[in-house]
């Protein structure tokens, strides 16, 4: 039985004229299949056909035929497809139902009617498989983005579906977490099941894959994974700059939640025209430290000082920032509040967003939403820029645009702090790298 077979499939989201998928015909036949292409090209839409979210959840118009794990997608309810097709979304925080790790991993098993005596063993095994056994007993609200991503994957693996579909599964993971996910993927494939993964960083996955499905403007091309070289994107930067006055500082700061220390003490400072990168494993405290620098969390000990000026903060979930009718109006609101006369088109062009400037931000792809959020927070001339995993869901061209934009902010005098697992990003931009380790 083929994993999936699409024949002449064309799909339009509600209220759109241009199809998200256009006359797609392909067969996915087991093993590991990679789905590649630029942000907004249709990758996530293609994946959502496999579990029926397209068209049953999103609505819209669909033509042609689609079979997934032996089911006719167009007529099969998603609750039936969910038994054979497990799906991990780009935004794991949107996938959670319960507030504790074990309950979350057990949720799918409850829906399948698995006996409680078996359920506990399958929950424990799934958490162990992706190196998250230590998260048992934790509340989801206390987890980092990368830890949530691993819990979401464990929730799918516990159900033992025929096909596992992963949308950017390593985008928030440190090197160890990404390796555990790749090992789990290899075991799923070795067990005779199928895995379909959309990723922008393919270096570790490509040697294990059989096929690359490239999606561009809703159309697909099929490649042999051994003969498909992704085009490298290089950015030339002018690194001849001098840091200025101190913009932020931490003195003996311990960060955490509700009297529970996460990391520290820290004695750090950053200057105008300087980029500081925070590196470290998932759960080490990078996001907590970044939010403390921003003033969103009070330190458990020590003192934080910030020079007066606008703070631009990008959280791990950029959707939380986007609430205006269009991408352009998000940028214009920031500029108006900052009383900055810079035209909105400047940053829209820098991040390659002019073609979606009139679109509702929440209707964009994950990578486009990430860029829209960056445009909304970075427009103008912020004094302090704080970015949490800014390349999440970005293709190579978008990453290059971000690097150029941050370099320009540094040149104009912004102090920048970015928390990232993206070693290439840190290497391209960081004047200093701070390793954030567990206490």
Summarize this, please?
The chain is an alpha/beta fold and 439 residues long. It contains 13 helices and 18 strands.
Secondary-structure blueprint of this entry?
Elements: E1 4-12, E2 21-28, E3 32-36, H1 43-50, H2 53-57, E4 61-68, E5 71-72, H3 78-81, E6 85-88, H4 101-112, H5 116-129, H6 145-157, E7 163-167, H7 175-190, E8 194-198, E9 211-216, E10 219-224, E11 246-257, E12 260-271, E13 275-279, H8 286-294, E14 301-306, E15 311-314, H9 327-337, H10 344-350, H11 366-378, E16 384-388, H12 396-411, E17 415-419, H13 423-429, E18 432-435
Parallel strand pairs: 3-8, 3-9, 6-7, 7-8, 13-17, 13-18, 15-16, 16-17
Antiparallel strand pairs: 1-2, 1-4, 4-5, 9-10, 11-12, 11-14
Termini separation: 50 Å
- Strands ordered across the widest β-sheet: 6-7-8-3-9-10
Task: Characterize the overall form.
Answer: globular
> Biggest β-sheet: count, sense, barrel?
6 strands, mixed
Average pLDDT score: 88
CATH class type of the largest domain: Alpha Beta
Q: Which architecture of the largest domain would the CATH scheme give at its second level?
A: 3-Layer(aba) Sandwich
């Amino acid at each position: 039985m083929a994993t999936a077979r699409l024949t002449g499939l064309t799909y339009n989201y509600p209220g759109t004229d241009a199809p998200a998928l256009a006359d797609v015909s392909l067969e996915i036949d087991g093993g590991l299949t990679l789905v590649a292409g630029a942000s907004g090209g249709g990758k996530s839409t293609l994946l959502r056909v496999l579990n029926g979210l397209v068209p049953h959840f999103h609505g819209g118009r669909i033509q042609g035929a689609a079979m997934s794990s032996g089911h006719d997608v167009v007529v099969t309810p998603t609750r039936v497809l969910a038994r054979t097709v497990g799906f991990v979304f780009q935004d794991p925080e949107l996938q959670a139902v319960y507030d504790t790790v074990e309950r979350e991993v057990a949720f799918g098993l409850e829906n399948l009617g698995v006996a409680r005596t078996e359920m506990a063993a399958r929950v424990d095994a799934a958490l162990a498989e992706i190196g998250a056994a230590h998260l048992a007993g934790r509340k989801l609200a206390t987890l980092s983005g990368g830890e949530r991503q691993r819990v979401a994957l464990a929730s799918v693996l516990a159900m033992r579906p025929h096909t596992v579909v992963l949308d950017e599964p390593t985008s928030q993971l440190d090197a160890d977490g990404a390796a555990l996910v790749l090992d789990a993927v290899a075991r799923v494939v070795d067990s005779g099941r199928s895995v379909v993964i959309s990723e922008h960083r393919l270096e570790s996955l490509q040697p294990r894959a059989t096929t690359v499905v490239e999606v561009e403007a809703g159309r697909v091309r099929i490649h042999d994974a051994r003969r498909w070289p992704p085009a490298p994107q290089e950015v030339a930067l002018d690194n001849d700059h001098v840091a200025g006055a101190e913009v932020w500082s931490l003195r003996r700061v311990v960060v955490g939640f509700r009297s529970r220390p996460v990391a520290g003490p820290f004695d750090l400072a950053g200057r105008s025209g300087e980029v500081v990168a925070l590196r470290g494993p998932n759960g080490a405290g990078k996001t907590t430290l970044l939010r403390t620098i921003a003033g969103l969390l009070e330190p458990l000990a020590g003192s934080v000082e910030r020079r007066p000026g606008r703070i631009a903060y990008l959280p791990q979930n950029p959707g939380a920032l986007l609430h205006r009718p269009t991408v352009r109006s998000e940028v214009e609101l920031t500029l108006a509040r900052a009383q900055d006369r810079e035209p909105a088109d400047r940053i829209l062009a820098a991040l390659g967003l002019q073609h979606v400037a009139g679109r509702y931000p929440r209707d964009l792809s994950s990578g486009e939403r990430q860029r829209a959020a960056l445009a909304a927070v970075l427009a103008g001339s912020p004094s302090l820029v704080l970015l949490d995993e800014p390349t999440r869901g970005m293709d190579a061209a978008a990453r290059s645009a971000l690097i150029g934009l941050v370099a320009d902010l540094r040149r104009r005098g912004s102090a920048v702090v970015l928390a990232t697992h993206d070693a290439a990003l840190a290497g391209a931009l960081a004047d200093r790298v701070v390793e954030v380790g567990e206490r």
